[in-house]
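Aim 2, interim progress. The first record below pairs a target sequence with its structure tokens.
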Amino acid sequence: MADVATTVPTILGLQVRSRAGRRLLRHRGALVGGFLIAFFVVLAAAAPLFATHDPLATDWLAVRKAPSLAHWMGTDEIGRDVYSRLVWGTRTSLLAGVISVAFALSVGVPLGVLSGYFGGWTDTVISRCNEALLSCPFLILAIAFAAFLGPSLTNAMIAIGLSAAPIFVRLARGQTLVVKSEEYVDGARAVGLAHPRILWRYILPNIFPPLLVQATLTIATAIIAEASLSFLGLGQQPPSPSWGSMLSIAKNFLIQAPWMSIWPGVGIFLVVFGFNLLGDGLRDALDPRGD
């Protein structure tokens, strides 16, 4: 009986993943989003190769110069190359998005699973605290945490992760409530499997797809949040390049040097657009009601 309880969900899981992979490859939006994300990941990973100048080097003879062969995207208020700073800022934005969401998952998913699986007072305490956090707007909560922790990229990632964690607590709890009532989970309990094994073997694998979709979409939100915190001076600190801090400086030169704000804005738009497209594609591909 234990073998049956283990084999059935495994076979079904392989079939679902196979169908989901085929749907994802047929989803044009997901392919476009995946291409954009892959482009920015390569750009961030190989930033020293793609950058044409030192992102911190100043040139007082080339202050706020328009785009040219020497400086493809122009220079900023102290003569730094905008293109090189944009390339290095890609690494900051992607790291902030991925690490903060990974932190949110590591905090939110265990709490949500425990809340949904055990119920009772555990569910009551976790749910009430989570609802209190969800009542605050995400960005306002992130700003409050970042202001409390202090201005730095690390603290900004922690603040964004803490602010995003309630989303995953709620989602993991809801999915756990659905999965724990399935017959194969009842079978696992009937043969005497311990709670940790049931959670690891049956609950977590079956709540993973919606968590993956939500994580992909939340990375896009986290990148915007990091840019917002850096814009306010609570994220990456000068002179290190960050798209948000570049926009913060560029707002003072919108008329004299519009290229200072255009390129970081385009970068934020494209990477967020890519994650949203990929997230939508994953949601459609993992939908069990799909063809």
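The second target in this work package is listed in the same format:
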Amino acid sequence: MSDTNTLLTAKDFTSSQEPKWCPGCGDHAVLQQLKNAMADLGLKPEEVIVVSGIGCSSRLPYYVSTYGVHGIHGRAMAMASGLKTARPDLSVWVATGDGDALSIGGNHYIHTVRRNLDMNVILFNNEIYGLTKGQYSPTSKVGLKTVTSPNGVVDYPMNTAALTLGSGGTFVARVLDRDGKFMREVFKRAAHHKGTSVVEIYQNCPIYNDGAFAVFTDKERKADTTVYLEQDKPLVFGAQQDKGIKLDGFTPVIVDLTDSSVSKDDLWIHDEKDKLKANILAGFFDDPDTMENCLPRPIGIFYVEDRFTYENALDEQIAQAQSGGEGTLEELLAGPSTWTIK
């Protein structure tokens, strides 16, 4: 973070390169809010590095005037992990997509999350491979017809929030590309988190998967299909804020708040520190376009946990190893134990 009083703006994080994304692509909104967040955080461009793999979203390092690395397919997490370990002073951001992170990069994604390096992952999810012209991705909906699934996708889609929590994620959030101000605030929360923050972004691809998230962004339907997570606030949704969610044991149930027998005091109160409830929230994954009376899709911060970071633990381990003075190669190779074989 910058220690100066100089006020920066998004322009200070804007590069000379014109974004080469299609008109109407949600990536434009994400880029703008990321620059806004960096300015709000008081960062200097030279204190930031953006790392990416392959995909439309992975062009992002060219469009910010920070340090950047455009790597190879699925390897953004590995490169960012090495950078953060070597330069813990830098603010490291990973720009990746549902294909880059969850398909070829899935193994790196899981282990980056569990190691918990202090860096920020913004995962653009448009449920399609856009850069390579419209193949289905790990998050594509069942039935989606693409160039690689002309008769419809038969794979069940990956649930990013559930995967991240199951991998030991310490900051798990989801936002919509059309909620600019909300996205900006979540980015800032993610940056302040000491550990690996993951922000999944439902992002529209107007060419190959247009309207994939319309059920969650359409003005007439959004209120009934999404629930915004606010710390210490009840889970309330609906156009008239007339619906709520309570827990019947571990089962979430929608209740009608216009019913005089129902009280807001009975509703589920959101707590970012409650991992059990975060996992239940991640299970709100029904498709409102194909199912009736399904649970709304959660938007916001699911879970936050304070846990040691990988780079700090590694530094402490090295310091401990060096505390006894210099060793020898023979001692290192021999290790702490020897065996005599008769």
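The chain has a mean pLDDT of 95. This observation will shape the mutagenesis plan for the next reporting period.
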